[in-house]
What does this fold into?
Amino acid sequence: MPAKRMTAEELNQLFAQPNPPLVIDVRSREKYEAGHVPGAVHIPAAQLEIALADLPRDRAIVTYCGGGTSGPRAADFLLAHGFDARVMAGFRWWEKAGLPVETGGGA
It folds into this structure.
């Protein structure tokens, strides 16, 4: 079963919850530094397997890419490894929704 998809607005609402999700940006370092969801950590899709041991199992994880396929693939990968994983539509939809954007190295 594929990971649950959510909109940018739905993800933004989750930040107000007591235990907000960990958000992972799986795009390139350059795209991440140019703009990302505030508080998102950068883990390129190709390095996700290496990072598994460091990811929390006590909260949801939401992945996203620019709007293609690497975000959904990353969420499906995490789901297959027992994580509560979801995927946001893509960073371009975050921007289109007019939601805040963080630049630089971020989190």
Notes: Residues 70-80 form the longest helix (11 residues). Residues 29 and 42 are 7 Å apart (CA to CA). The helical segments are 8-14, 29-34, 48-51, 70-80, 91-96.
